Amino acid sequence: MSLGALLWRYLILTGVSAAALAAAWWITLMLLMNAGFVLPARTQSDHASDAAAAMRLQGSFDASLADELCNYVYFAPDGTVLETNLSGRRLADAKEARRTLEGGAWLYQRVDFSDGSLCLFQFDYSVLYGNEALRGVLPDFELVSLVLLAVVLVTTVTLITRHYTRRLRRAADKLAAASARIAEGQLEGGDFSSAGVRELDGAMDAMRTLKENLSGSLQAQWRMEQQRAEQMAALAHDLKTPLTIIGGNAELLAEDALSDAQRANVDAILRNTRYAGEYIASLRALAAGADSADTVKNPEPAASDGAQEHAAPQETERVSLPEFLAEIQAQGQALCRARGCVFRLLTDGTSMLPMRRAELLRALVNLVENAARYTPRGGAVTLESHVRRAPDGAGRAVFTVQDTGPGFTPEALAKGMQPLYTGEKSRPQDGHMGLGLTFAADVARRHGGALALRNAAGGGAVAELSFPVWG
Predict the structure, then answer these.
(1) How many Å apart are CA 359 and CA 442, to the nearest integer?
(2) Which alpha helices (H) appear in 184-197, and where do they start and end?
(3) Which of 39, 62, 191, 438 is 20 to 30 A removed from 19 (C-alpha atoms)?
(4) Which candidate, 138, 160, 128, 130, places its Cα nearest to that of 21?
(5) Residue 219 carries which DSSP code?
(6) Model pLDDT for residues 102-128, shown as the tens digit of each residue
């Protein structure tokens, strides 16, 4: 049923009910009149006319000619009231009628006598109780009957309105509940059946379609995430063997007599093999959906016995910040030198900082490497480290990496921290897998902080890793 049809049904039912009540009231009134419980509205007029006609015929005033339904007042020629059964407002109205020859709230039958006296019979068209005793005890019948009719009519309309209001409310509540389930992500189950109102059914159909589309989209997304996880797990597994071979051969080379330059190269191979092993551990953690609170894998350097697949979670420790930054600076300079750009380090001089050292080192090196990859030759990558202190001693460590490249695209700002995202159209990819920002964001969360991406006002991309510190 359409909303318009429902409203028309409500109006018709209300109108028919009102008409039926009015008809019932009228029939009841007729039955009461036939039974003599009440008198017709013309009764007073008829009695007044009969009494007036009798007095005109007699030619003189005679109170016995007026029965109990006749209200009269007899005036002397000078206007003095000689006899009456009226009082109060009724008598005042009769006096005014004699003076102005016009009635006020009541009607009159006038009888003039030859001696100049005057009799006025007062009446109106109202329904009276048939019993004179009841007329003096009960309230006005017309008032009572009309009040009762109004009460019954209002009650009936209220009940009809409540019925249709509840029907509309049930339909609206059903639609609201369906909308709330979708908003809360509860796409299984729920009542998405017809609401009983055509217009709301259209909205419910749209909700049902939206739920099905969202469910399909989430399932497709879940399958895609599963595929990504499988790809990362396969990649980590495939890289483990060549890294083990590289590490083993580098260790064998380190045992030979080498020149300083050769030993530096071997040390670089061993160091970066260790970093690659840690990177593979990150891949494994992401592929396995590792808990971001305490389950970071921190493998030993890759060696002849292979990178360890599992290691104990790293605990927070107080670290000498200058030494920590010096290690990042060494790697940052090497990375930037290979890209033809400059690495800069800015610090506020903080000496000690609580952190998970290896994790944070890898995260910041990832950010520096990411910045160097997108910085043109002759540009610069800047790492700034400082601690913001509050009056209560609490602070926040902030590490900001900024480059002079083209900056993040809107898509990269929205998706840059997603695993395997490499969709920046304006930047070269150099074969990277899109895990650096993901890992850095994960490390920031494990420190109780966050990674934020933005574009600098003067150009270039900015990645800010921050977390709370105490003491």
Answers:
(1) 10
(2) none
(3) 39
(4) 160
(5) H
(6) 767 888 888 999 888 999 998 888 888
Tokens 């018709």 label which residue?
12
Look at the chain and count its residues.
471
Kindly give the pairing relationship between strand 450-455 and strand 317-320: unpaired
User: Cα separations (Å) of 469 from 152, 347, 394, 407, 448?
Assistant: 74, 16, 6, 30, 9
CA-to-CA distance for 471 and 427, rounded, in angstroms? 41
| Interhelix angle 260-287/357-374, nearest 10 degrees | 100
Report the 10 Å Cβ neighbour count for 464. Answer: 18
Which domains, and CATH codes, for the chain? 42-125 (3.30.450), 218-313 (no CATH), 316-471 (3.30.565.10)
Name the residue type at position 208: R
Give the separation between CA 222 and CA 224, rounded to whole angstroms.
Answer: 5
Measured between its terminal Cα atoms, the distance across the chain in Å is 69
In angstroms, rounded to a whole number, what is the distance separating the alpha carbons of residues 188 and 212?
9
CA distance 227 to 130: 95
Reference 99, options 84, 82, 79; nearest CA is: 79
Q: Which two tokens stand for residue 377?
A: 């030759």
Dihedral angle of Cα 109, 115, 116, 121, to the nearest 10 degrees: -20
Q: From residue 451, give the alpha-carbon distance in Å to each of 73, 320, 353, 396.
A: 103, 22, 18, 13
Query: Which residues have a Cβ under 8 Å from the Cβ of 163 and sit 6 or more positions away?
Result: none
Instruction: Tell me if residue 382 falls in helix, strand or coil.
Output: strand
What is the predicted pLDDT for the residue at 466? 94
Ranges of the chain whose pLDDT falls below 50: 290-313, 424-431
Q: Identity (one letter) of the amino acid at 398?
A: V
Torsion of CA 55, 58, 59, 60, to 10 degrees: -70
